[in-house]
Amino acid sequence: MSVLPAIAVNTKANLSQTIKTTPANKRAADEYRQMGLAYRQQERFDEAIAALQKSVTLDPQNLDGRIILGWTQHLAKKHDDAATSLWEAIYLSPTSLQAFNAIGIVYLVRGDLPQSVILHSWAAMLKTDNEIAHYNLSLAYQRLQQYDLAIAYAQKAIELEPNNPHPFVASAIAQWTSGDQTRAKKTFREAISVDSRYRSLEFLNFLNEAGFSNEQIQTAKQVLASL
User: What whole-number distance in Å separates Cα of residue 106 and Cα of residue 119?
Assistant: First the structure.
C-alpha cells in the first residue's frame, strides 16, 4: 500500500473549495475509502468518518465517496452531517437514486417526515420499481397518520420485494393503526411466513435499523402479541 498523504479536512468546505484531483490523489482516495469502510464494519465510526472525509477531499467529484460518507455519518447518528454530505452528492448528480434513497432515510429517521416524503417520492419517480422508496414512504405516511397511503405504498413494496419481511410489517402497523386489526394480523402472519424470527417480540427491536420509529416498533409488538 502506498503512503497516504496527510490531508487537513474541512467538513464545511463547499464543492468549489477543492484540491486538484490527480491520479495519485484518486488512488489515495480509494485507499482511504476502503479504510473507512473497514472501520465502519467494525463500528469504529469516528475513525471511519475521518478516513472517508479524507477520501472525499482527495477525490471530491467521486459520487460514491460522498454517498458512503453520508451513509456512515447516518449510521453514527450524525444526521445533520449526513444530510450535508448527501446533498453534496446530489449536487454532483441530481438523478442519483442511491443518494436520494439515502437522504430520504436520513430525514425519516430524524423525524423530518414531510421532507422524507418529498425525497422518497422523487426517488420513486427516478425508478418506479424502487422498493426502498415505497417502503420508506409507507413508514413516513403511517407516522403522518395517512394510513391509506401508508398501506398502498407498503403493498407496492411487497409486490416489488415479496421476500423482504419489512414491508409486510410496515403494512401491518398501518392497518392496525387505521383500525383494521383483522387485516393487520393476517399481514403480520405473512411477515412471519417470510422470516420466522418475527415470531419473537424481542427480535422486533431490530426494526429500528430498518427505519421504524420506537412507536412503530411498539405497534408491531402489539400486533404480534395479538396473534
Answer: 10
Q: For residues 172 and 182, is the Cβ–Cβ distance under 8 A?
A: no
* Residue entry with cell 387505521: 178
Contact between residue 166 and residue 139 where contact means Cβ atoms under 8 Å apart: no
Listed residue (104, 99, 109) closest to 120, CA to CA: 104
Region of residue 17 (phi > 0: left; psi between -120 and 50: alpha; otherwise: beta): beta
What is the per-residue burial (b if ≥16 Cβ within 10 Å, else e) of 141-156?
Answer: bbbeebbebbbbbbbb
Alpha carbon 18 to its chain's center: 27
78-95 pLDDT, tens per residue?
999 999 999 999 999 999
